[in-house]
Amino acid sequence: MKGGIEEFLKTEKFEGYYEELIVELEKLNSKLHIFSNINKGLSTGLPFSVKDNICVKDVVSTASSQMLNGYTPPFNATAIERLPKEEFGFIGKTKMDEFGFGTFGINCKDHPLNPFDDRYVTGGSSAGSAVATAVLKHHISIAESTGGSISCPAAFCGIIGFTPTYGLVSRYGLIDYASSLDKIGVMGRSSADIRYVFDKIKGSDRYDTTCVDHPISKESRKKLVIIDQLMAGVDEEIASSFDRTIGKLQNIGYYVEHKSIPFIEKTIPAYYIASMAEASTNLAKFTGFKYGLKINDFSKGYNDFFTEARNNFGLEAKRRIVLGTFVRSSSVKSKYYEKALRLRHMMINALGVILKDGFIISPTMPIKTPTVKEAEDFDPVKEYSIDSITVPPNFAGLPHISFPSDYIKGMPVGTQIVANHFNDYALLDFVERWESQFEYRFKYNVGAL
Amino acid sequence: MENEDFDRLLRICRLSLEKGEKAKIKHEIDGIIEYFNTIDGVDCDKYSPSYHPIDIPSKRRKDEPEQFPDVGKLLRNSKIYRFFIVGPKI
Amino acid sequence: MKIGLEVHVALPTETKLFCSCSTNADEPNTSICPVCLGFPGSKPMLNDAALKSALTVAKALHCKINDNTYFLRKVYFYPDLPKSYQITQLDGAIGHGGYVDISKKRIRIRRVQLEEDPAKIIREDEYSLLDFNRSGIPLNEIVTEPDIETEEELREFVNELRSILYYAGVDINKEMKTDLNISLGEERVEIKNVTGIKNLVDAERFEVKRQGELISRNQKIPKETRAYNSETLSTISSREKESDEEYGFIYEPDLASYPTGDIVIPEVVIASDVARQLSSKYGLNEATVKELVMFDRHALGLVQYGLKRSNANRVINAIELLKRHGNITISDESFGKMLSYLDKGLLLNEDAIKSLQENRQVEIEKNTVSTKEIDKAILGIVAQRQDLVREYKTNSKAFNFIVGMLLKKYKVNPKYISERLAEVLKDKA
Fewest beta carbons less than 10 Å away: which of A214, C271, C292, C348? Predict the structure, then answer.
């Protein structure tokens, strides 16, 4: 199956195309709050959007945080730099949970709304990126996942979200959440489009130590493994939808096995410990005078000055800074921070054994898309628990994809497939096979040719 | 967590919370720490901490100077006085 | 008394520790980039030369080298620290468990680590001014055990350490910053950020006196951090509360762990060891040899070369002579030639020494004079100027006048002339 990018690049007539596209998009943006800014000067290439925590040269990049108000990086993230200018045109920065801190996409000012029904959340944290992909006919979005920030909104917004193996795409230009967990990935409407873009942006980078030049394999697997503990808390309707998806996959030659990893549920608190520890150091740099938000009264002592500036973090950011600082403080560091990382090691080994000859499959999210109202009422621990299925592959740096697999009462449902480190192409092949017998639905097709 | 410890933690982070906010956040944080404590029971001491999920090669940079192409743009974000970046009083 | 030091020296690299900005810059904030400004989105990339240089120092200090070296984030808030954490080391430092020998004892080195320098900060009344050219300069931190017990040992250790650093390729003329831990009683007092060697010794002296007085008055010495003021020559308590310090070290996830096994490190000469060995082997004064070679690798080379070929004292005199004439760097071969002239009882004047460097044979010979000829000249003057000879014992001007006359003519080593003249006059008197 050919992707939209190929089709788009073959087209020659673009008279008035971009002007119309932008008018339509701005209209939609005022309804769904997708972008923090739209590039009105776009005049060439396939429109791509960028999650607001990824730097685009000379464009305000804030990670949807007040703390970064006005921050204008004088450099491109490597992933952006590598997209050929003659093929892709930057259309705007997409909204997100502040610094990536959130499961629903509601931790920012005027947060995005679900394109299928605007009473519902988009999922987060790559909220705007998912919506942009869901509303634009020809589009890819450069997004980022730390603990599920690509899979979750992809599932809730009915698009494909690809999170590559940790280290395959350079993080240079990414405003860090948790450096050992952050992965730049791609959102799109077809596996072919995602593959096309992934091939452009991947590979070793002289500006990012942790970016590797590892060969990427396409070792297909017929065995799909369901980890029983991951299914434990899954909503009934989601579970039966998942059964139907498995049925469809069995029809095209896959078979299913069940496995048990008793400690896998502990990876969620472990993931939050590790990610908050790193986040609390990454967010220490925001002190209100070199970039972003400014405090103008320099005569204040630096401690008061910094405290006043840092008061502009959102609530969830503050929570995570405090918790992250706590779990790495000297008296409890081995109990929390180090232990969480040992647990990660144990989990990577356990998942590695399963992934040697199979993919791990599950619903992407254990719940149906909540409404904004419902999401606002979640307390933090409950919200963190919702990430139960997206966290394990993210914590382990394993490549995974969420793809649309069903529609319940008009709302999309996603399935997540996980492969072993560096077997990324096999995942894209898998989704391509899925697409041969399943048609994705979209409510908007802005910019259709 | 004791209130005293919580206040100390806030000072270390250079964060302040408004009165109403503070009790709520402290309560939530206590709940989250309790949730974190659930990893206590997992026996994983024989595993070394995994600082990265994959092996990171020890890539290094050659010691060859390169000028950042647009120093002016770096400084446009700050207040400048005679080439210096102005910062808070020490 | 126990003294431990944390010495910080800049490593000799062209670029900063984690970015390609030059380490040489004049105007403030011209050698900066997103990395050393801590801009969101930037990432560090380790400078290979800094790693090698730090390894060289660690090895020279007899440290055990960690198989894998890695970095930590040390989190604290100060305007000069761009990311509000410093990338530094602790466990996993470049080296640990080394030592430096001084004359009567061994000072143990706890750790040698690599870290980034913060920006330069200038205090003003209503604000501070920052220059990020310094931000990210690679520093080597050398941490000693508290083995230093006297001011003399402190001086000797610092001198020895600087010599080792010099031979490891570090520019020792750059500012050295030291944290001085000093305890006369139970509690440890830390004096942060003392610049240079004179200040270090002055700070130590003040602190010994201060703590000594507290003890003699039966007062407790509180555990605290102090700052040294070079104008008042005293230390004052810093305001920061220790209980609010919490660096919360974590592994630096933006960097890798670096294996050290396959990195080739040059062997570093410990000049004072060599000086000691040579002095005892050739019967030379150890202090004299050290003075010549501790901070001059060229001189050390000449000493080693010369001792195999000529009389030991003559070699030392020759090098002293060279140094007196502006530390002329001559080749081993030319030095050999110089020694052969001296062996023949010839003296070389300033022009001859300069010609040696360029190996201009004719010039050298034109400017070389035999001791016999000088003796003849001395006797000539003595015969003609009996007035001066009579006066020389009571009037040093008379003596110096004769030396001056001879120097004007021969431009050779004044020390030789005055010694020879003194001998002749003594005979005549």
Answer: A214
ipTM rounded to 2 decimals:
0.97
Q: Among C259, C292, C324, identify where a domain stops.
A: C259
Between CA C360 and CA C363, with CA C362 as vertex, the angle to 5 degrees is 70
Domain of B14 in residue numbering reads as: 1-40
Instruction: Provide the CATH number for the domain around residue C408.
Output: 1.10.10
For residues A151 and A123, give the distance between their C-alpha atoms in angstroms, rounded to a whole number: 9
Last residue of a domain, one of C366, C398, C416: C366
**Do A139 and A185 form a contact (C-beta atoms < 8 A)?**
no
Neighbours of B46 (CB within 10 A): 8
Mutation pick from A282, A297, A303, A344 vs chain C, by most beta carbons of C within 10 Å, is A282
Same domain, C330 and C412: no
Mean per-residue pLDDT pooled into runs of 10, chain C (429 residues)? 96 98 95 97 98 97 97 97 98 97 95 97 96 97 97 96 96 93 90 94 95 92 91 85 78 98 92 94 94 94 91 90 79 87 80 75 74 84 79 78 83 80 76
Closest CA to C286 of C295, C297, C275: C275
A300·B61 Cβ contact <8 A: no
Q: Does B82 touch chain A (CB under 8 A)?
A: no
Q: What is the pLDDT of residues B51-80, one digit of tens each?
A: 999 999 999 999 999 999 999 999 988 899
Which whole-number Å values give the CA distances from C120 to C113, C128, C130, in the listed order? 21, 10, 6
Residue C326 lies in a domain: yes
C-alpha to C-alpha distance for A45 and A185, rounded to whole angstroms: 20
Q: What angle do CA C384, C385, C389 make, to 5 degrees?
A: 130
Calculate Rg over the CA atoms of chain B.
23
Size of interface A-C (CB pairs under 8 A): 107
- For residue C248, list chain A residues with Cβ-Cβ distance below 8 A: 280-281, 325, 328-330, 333
Burial, B33: exposed, middle or buried (Cβ in 10 Å; 0-12, 13-18, 19+)? middle
Give the Cα separation of C306 and C318 in Å (integer).
9
State whether C330 and C387 are in the same domain. no
Q: Which domain range does residue C307 map to?
A: 269-366
Q: Which amino acid is at C348?
A: L
Do C44 and C126 fall into the same domain? yes
Q: Where are the alpha helices (DSSP H) in A148-296?
A: 151-157, 191-201, 228-231, 236-251, 267-282
Number of domains composing chain C? 3
- Identify whether the C-beta of residue A176 lies closer than 8 Å to the C-beta of residue A210: no
Contact A206 B29 (CB under 8 A): no
- Domains observed in chain A: 4-219+362-435 (3.90.1300.10)
Q: Which residues of C touch A68 (CB under 8 A)?
A: 40
pTM value is 0.93
Question: Is A125 one of the catalytic residues?
Answer: yes
C197-203 long-range contacts, CB within 8 A, separation 24+? C197/C158, C197/C162, C199/C228, C199/C230, C200/C154, C200/C158, C201/C151, C201/C154, C201/C155, C202/C228, C202/C230, C202/C233, C203/C228, C203/C235
Any bridge partners for residue C250, and if so which?
C73
**Angle between helical axes of A127-135 and A17-32 (0-180°, round to 10):** 130
Asked if A64 is an active-site residue, the reply is no
Which of A72, A300, A325 has the CB atom closest to B12's CB atom?
A325
- Which chain C residue lies closest to B57 (C-alpha atoms)? C256
Q: CB within 8 A of C198, min separation 6: which ones?
A: none
State the total domains in chain B: 1
Q: Which residue in C has a C-alpha nearest to residue B53's C-alpha?
A: C253
